[in-house]
Amino acid sequence: MAIDFPPQRVAVTGASGLLGRALVTALASRGHAVVGGYRELPQPSPAAVTPLKLDLLNAESIAEFVGTARPDCVIHAAALTDVDRCERDPEFALCVNTIGAQSLSKALEGSGCRMIFLSTDYVFDGREGPYDESAVPNPINVYGHTKNVAEEIVRTIFPDWAIVRSASFLGIGLPNRPTWAEKLVITMLERPPLTVATDQRSNITPLEFLASAIIEIVEGRGTGLRHVAGDEILSRYEFALKLVRLFGKSDDTIQAVSYRDLNRLAPRPLNGGLATRFPLRTPQIPLDVALDRWKTEFLQART
Known about the structure:
Layout: E1 9-13, H1 18-29, E2 33-38, E3 49-53, H2 59-69, E4 73-76, H3 83-88, H4 90-108, E5 114-120, H5 142-157, E6 161-166, E7 169-170, H6 180-190, E8 194-197, E9 201-203, E10 205-206, H7 207-220, E11 224-227, E12 233-235, H8 236-246, E13 254-257, H9 287-301
Parallel strand pairs: 1-2, 1-4, 2-3, 4-5, 5-6, 6-11, 7-10, 8-13
Antiparallel strand pairs: 9-12
Helix pairs in contact: 1-7, 2-4, 4-5
């Protein structure tokens, strides 16, 4: 397809993940040469994507990936995002999220490659959200801490970097890896009642919007810190109500509780959410529109 910007060789780590899959597909459709980093190589390989094995815990694997990929830009989307698992195994979380980012950054140092690092609203404590780019991080769990330290590493090593913080992706996972929204609906439909917190708030971010916004940063060579998230900040209970009504169920299918009552291992930022001082041209997708599309994809994936 004709494009009005120079095509780039873009490497995406975590290419089998929720965001990674959306990115490699969208980048290839825009005419970029796409290299996907996979912990286990996919069979068959995604169309128009060059798959390379990448183990962030192995320096030799990282060096081989960088040497073969020869990227103009790396989008580092690979991470351990299971917040409670990070809390249970902080050493492993540190190895993947922080040391992995450091090792990859060191391997790219001096190459002239740009780094776009994917981070999270969990770098904040959730006391006075929403937070814009000027807010000072203060993570309250292991996951947020590992990502916050990785942000600092990226800033230190790369002269040309962008950090994209986002929140609560709305998308469709793999059959053995459903997303948090899919888990809510499965529980709501199959094992009600669905118990959700009224006091945990964040942006709900349509995956299509986030991927498009990241590609805008790639193509526009945007730099610095960017908050890219959906424009609706909802409590988990408010979001669950939308899901219940979307699937034609009654409101009493869900049970409202406080986050503390859920007995989760890791603390979450409760009064969270992201705001931005640097809006992009990529248009927001209204949440209700995104949910209608999501429902169709969800039902197709389960047939």
